[in-house]
What does this fold into?
Amino acid sequence: MTRITGVRTLDVRAPTSRTLAGSDAVHTDPDYSGAYVFLETDGEHEGVGMTFTIGAGNDLCCAAIQLLAPVVVGLDVDGLLADSAGLWRRLTNHSQLRWLGPEKGVIHLATAALVNAVWDLAAKTAGKPLWQLLADLTPEELVGLVDFRYLTDVLDRDEALDLVRGLAPTRAARVAELRRDGYPAYLTSAGWLGYPEDKVRDLTRAALADGWSCFKTKVGVDVASDVRRCELMREEIGDLPLMADANQVWDVGQAIEWMRHLEPFGLRWIEEPTSPDDVLGHAAIRRAVAPVGVATGEHAMNRVVFKQLLQAEAIDYCQIDACRLGGVNEVLAVLLLAAKFGVPVCPHAGGLALCEYVQHLSIVDYVCVSGSLDDRTTEFADHLHEHFVHPALVRDGRYVVPDAPGYSADLHPASIDALTFPSGSEWR
Ligand SMILES: [Mg+2]
It folds into this structure.
């Protein structure tokens, strides 16, 4: 029997604020960071997981991971799948640590890192990329990964099972399609708010030449510069789909008023127009700005908030985050909820390792849960992929299906040496 014998954490930070990569209306100087966790075993493989932050406080996530670590130490590696929902419940329902959340904030980010590491270990042990490990499960096994507590008024296990069973016979055809065509993606990294106009124009042209056909820009500093930014993007990309992201900067009424000025640009969605906790505010904005869609979720702290966003008809696009939700198990819960409501899942990515993570989740969504690519596109930002042993690959604006065993967050040793905070060469 192989066991998890210990848990190491590592504070990994990339100095992206030096170039203003990732800058938006609220987060003006992010240092893309990962609170990494390594699950040591007495077997062949180590599980690697992380949660994403933008710099300061990444060490708090590492400390929280260590507080939760006793829940996983001693587990049988070969039995990780058998009681995955139970393990998730034990992590999120720790009788004392849950007071720090529950299921939100630093403690939930730490849960995500540990859960993601457990899944990495399970996938490496099975010799499969994570998406395939999940896509090879029976409908009963897949739905069995979800903790349905707090969801059963809207979605229970039996209904979820019906949904997943209906798509099981045709999974292989969708896998073959994705292997041939890739998964549709859009590009964010041409339009960071701190970039000057010339740089945005140059990056957009280069992206078009690379085959990108869907773009997002940041907005929310002042109306005049947002209008100018959208004009510039339209000049470069013509009628291709364009989205805008306000990163929570507006009040509800302000969002509605501001969006009137952006009406001429035919935006596909406005992302995070207000507080991520304001379900009814999003619903009000959605009613007012249609036919522009409303997208949110990268800061939606758990499946309950997604449940309410969907119940309140507050979103047109469901933006799961691989590290804000409590890892793979809770993401599956939200994929099922979104499928029930017929709302497309368009994951949040970028940052550090988020593209590497969500490519697996989008594949699982299409192959096992939604069965549709309609109106779906997964975020991509072209930063920091050089640090990964198995980086996310994009061809002609679509994610290439990953093949390496595991969940794709492994860093090169040289990158660990460079990015470890504060001792790494990038920080000394
Ligand atoms: Mg965003």
